[in-house]
Amino acid sequence: MKRLGLIINPIAGMGGPVGLKGTDGRATYEEALRRGAVPRAEQRAREVLPALAEHGDDLQILTCTGSMGETVVSRAGLRYRLVLDHPKKELSTGEDTIRAARLMLQEGIDLLLFAGGDGTARDVCEGIGTSVPALGIPAGVKIHSGVFAVNPERAGEIARTFLFGGARGRTQEMEVMDIDEDAFRADRVQARLYGYLAVPWDRGRVQGAKAGSAASENLSQQAVAENIVENMSSERIYILAPGTTVREVARRLGVEKTLLGVDAVKSGKLLARDLNEMDLLDLVQRNPCTIVVSPIGGQGYIFGRGNQQISPRVIQAAGKENILVAATPHKLASLAGRPLLVDTGNAELDRRLQGPWPIVTGYHEKSMYPVTY
Predict the structure, then answer these.
(1) 152 closest CA partner among 302, 56, 45
(2) How far is 315 from 322, CA to CA, in rounded Å?
(3) Among 148, 264, 305, 333, which one is least packed by beta carbons within 10 Å?
(4) At what angle do helices 244-253 and 217-230 cross, to 10 degrees?
(5) 42 Cβ neighbours under 8 A, 6+ residues apart
(6) CATH architecture, domain 2-200
(7) CB under 8 Å to 364, separation ≥6 — which residues?
(8) What residue ranges do the domains of the chain occupy?
(9) pLDDT tens track for 67-84
(10) DSSP secondary structure letter of residue 38
């Protein structure tokens, strides 16, 4: 009988679509609710379990009450036992995650799955360190750490292979990173290394840690920006996603862009700053729009990491043909042949987005590059 631990941070990821860039702390959670945010972590965790269903007779899941795990596991019909009885009417905290992880370690689990973002990974790291294998189900806004599967479906596949694949799979110690959310909301990235988790290693299905841009990248980014600006239409609105490459587009236009937010420009002028999902949906439903996005360095994500404001509904309304992907040759080379990734939270959309994409890589330069999910 294999023992699998499952911890869900039920508020993880709620702040992304409404433009909060995180959901750490009660005040931010309440602001997310005020802006109309809805929970998404349970759904992300639910997508993991079908891969384990065929082994239900040989698997016991250790989890927590209510939205921290019990609801998802019971609906999947899998055998489970509660190790943490969290009051269902109270907001779970990082201390609950730490405590649950330590209790599961004491129970002798073979693998711990946790749904959340970098903050949740920090809590798991504090609870168990590298004492037992652990893997993140990506559900947060900030996912800079290298301890997450590329999407929930792949997390299920990794867990199944690790637990029931015959020989015990190998693990690799991967970085747990996190950033200061208050600084993040003020357009400053202050990241630090908090520790390591022992992650079941699968190069194609575990994401890498986010990599920053080198200073030498700036000239390449300027060339990309010149290409994009030269070909802009005065009849279209351009939605500028987060990141330094896209920020260079705004600089070329003479517009001050939020580094970590989503802005809109038209005819070379700033139309709106730091837009949330509903703002963007209103724009793309009423106007011809082009989404300009750049993949995350070291990870390769186009959608689903740090730009959840550009939601499946926004992408579908804009149309795949109106998505412009920009990346410097160095950024593509840093992927070492791995494809670019999408993890929008809508599996059908992710499937439609996969395939070869034209990527703007310089001035009058494009490269075809594979995108998958």
Answers:
(1) 45
(2) 9
(3) 333
(4) 50
(5) 8, 10, 67, 71, 72, 115
(6) 3-Layer(aba) Sandwich (3.40)
(7) 227
(8) 2-200, 217-372
(9) 999 999 999 999 999 999
(10) -
